[in-house]
Amino acid sequence: MAAEDQSQTSQSDLPYVLILKPPPSFVLFGDHFFHSPNFQYLKAYESPLPLPHFLHTHAQSVQALLSSGGAPVTADTIRLLPRLGLVVTTSQGLNHIDLSECRRRGIAVAGAGTIFSADCADSAVGLLIDVLRKISAANRYVKQGLWSSQGIYPLGYKLGGKHVGIVGLGSIGTEVAKRLEPFGCSISYNSRSKKPLVPYTFYPNVVELAANCDALIICCALTDETHHLISKEALLALGKDGVIINIARGPIIDEKELVHCLVKGEIRGAGLDVFEHEPDVPVELFALDNVVMSPHNAVFTRESFDDLCKLVVGNLEAFFSNEPLLTPVALDDLPHFSGRKD
Amino acid sequence: MESIGVLMACPMNPYLEQELDKRFTLHRFWKVPEKSTFLTTHCNSIRAVVGNASSGADAQMIEALPKLEIVASFSVGLDKIDLAKCKEKGIRVTNTPDVLTEDVADLAIGLMLAVLRKLCESDRYVRSGKWKKGSYMLTTKFTGKRVGIIGLGRIGMAIAKRAEAFSCPISYHSRTEKTETKYKYYPSVVELAANCDILVVACSLTEETRHIVNRKVIDALGAKGVLINIGRGPHVDEPELVSALVERRIGGAGLDVFEHEPEVPEELFGLDNVVLLPHVGSGTVETRKAMADLVLGNLEAHFMNKPLLTPVV
């Protein structure tokens, strides 16, 4: 009797975590890695009901929501969930969540914390070395059998001694700076505000930063203020010997202008993990050897995935047992996010 | 100095060639159709040879040039020069150390990131249009991986310094233990390979280090291990490496050098965990100019009876 009671208690009494669309990690690795005996997932994407109807039906049972870049949490969604107390996101970025609305409603938000910082920084440095030293292009050259037939490969450019400008000196930007120092790079940055204890040169705006560096690395969040932050002006200031690396969000760079500058040789090259309209990539870039691209996978390592599973489950379990979240997002000093989709 | 004959072994750098042409009587060996006749004809005017990683001055060449005084190599590696013969005949030898240390170390780290994070494959993936169909690429984290360095000279130390910034624990094998460093020493390459995730060859090529990465070492490195070679092709038993990669007995490789450059084993072309480069370790505009200036500076110093800038012998 007792055993039966226990099993009947299991599913139906567990609190629900709503998922509008499966996060990339669910799709790639399987959602069983994110399971917990302490809660259950309510998958809106598996229901035949249209979303507003689905939300209305389950509105009273949903206290937590698991989000990712492709499943924005807008003010409208939030308003349909009166009992929502927590939004957990699997992504590094927060631009797909209406943080102001969360703050207004007293909904907590749990992010990725710093679990992805190392991988993002490694990507940025990898892309920078690749662009300057032509690693992907030269690898293609060798694998096409051209080394023996066409001979010496064109020279690349030295990384040592280059001035690197980091846009956004948060956790990721700091990790990038740390890695580039022993390469002999001098680091400068632009951020919302100057960081007092940091040994790097601060520039109050991105155009000045670009004018004074050989490589720009974008590490900031996408907000209303940083949309198209890297404009035509910034790209021209970066100049013909300049390289740009973006491991943050596509819309931070004016992509049309970037493509134009690359095609015309107004900048030396680019390393891009993100684009304005993923998975669409401007076809003009495919013809360029001085561009290295990746499919927004800067955080998709096995190791980060393991860390992510533990973190997501940990945050949700903490919430449901009224314990402090592992990686709460501070909602008091917010830049302006309008919950725009990635 | 225009009457001094300088023999340039092979094409290596247009700027260097130009400058040698201006200052000396330059003989471009690769353009000579009958090499032995040429040497007989010019043997009394050639006083210097400029070589590089592919072509230097072997015993035969040295014997053919009785007036040879100096071999200036456009490389730091000396494996293409018969050093013993040069010593015997009092021929000076110079190379280009230090100026290329950073570029080679940068490339080693670049190769580690490219292999583990599948940078080249990711780029190929995007260019192929496959991204539109969904899926992502799963890669291996670089930060924190154990890096094992064979040869802790200038280049090995520069690699260690860079890898440390990625929180990589560093270990090494060297002819002798370097007690002044804090890195972990392994008395054999097999032990080093067994205890690291990424094994990088950074020593010089000598009789002793030929095939220093052999089947035993490859086996010890294992299915998750990655080999990076920025030294010389003959450091690695290439056929053994190729079969290990094809059979997935090691995790991947980043190779800048090969046993018979520019020939590269074609079995490697289709492997997504292998990055192949055409010997570009020092291949930047800035460094090649610095190397050329060193070669020119050494030659000038020699012929003006001044101390050589970077003598080896």
Automatic annotation (TrEMBL), chain A:
Stored InterPro entries: D-isomer_2-hydroxyacid_DH (IPR050223), D-isomer_2_OHA_DH_cat_dom (IPR006139), D-isomer_DH_NAD-bd (IPR006140), NAD(P)-bd_dom_sf (IPR036291)
Classification via Pfam families: 2-Hacid_dh, 2-Hacid_dh_C
Keyword presence, ATP-binding: no
Chain ranges of the D-isomer specific 2-hydroxyacid dehydrogenase catalytic domain: 55-329
All copies of domain D-isomer specific 2-hydroxyacid dehydrogenase NAD-binding, residue ranges: 125-298
Presence of keyword RNA-binding: no
Keywords linked to the UniProt accession: Oxidoreductase
Similarity remark: Belongs to the D-isomer specific 2-hydroxyacid dehydrogenase family.
Protein name: Glyoxylate/hydroxypyruvate reductase HPR3-like
UniProt organism field: Hibiscus sabdariffa
UniProtKB/TrEMBL annotation, chain B:
CDD domains per the UniProt record, alphabetical: HPPR
Domain D-isomer specific 2-hydroxyacid dehydrogenase catalytic: 12-312
Keyword line: NAD, Oxidoreductase
PROSITE patterns: D_2_HYDROXYACID_DH_1
A Pfam family annotated for this UniProt entry: 2-Hacid_dh
InterPro entries cross-referenced by the UniProt entry: D-isomer_2-hydroxyacid_DH, D-isomer_2_OHA_DH_cat_dom, D-isomer_DH_CS1, D-isomer_DH_NAD-bd, NAD(P)-bd_dom_sf
Domain D-isomer specific 2-hydroxyacid dehydrogenase NAD-binding intervals: 109-281
PANTHER family according to UniProt: 2-HYDROXYACID DEHYDROGENASE YGL185C-RELATED, 2-HYDROXYACID DEHYDROGENASE-RELATED
Record family assignment: Belongs to the D-isomer specific 2-hydroxyacid dehydrogenase family.
Protein name: Hydroxyphenylpyruvate reductase
UniProt source species: Hibiscus sabdariffa (roselle)
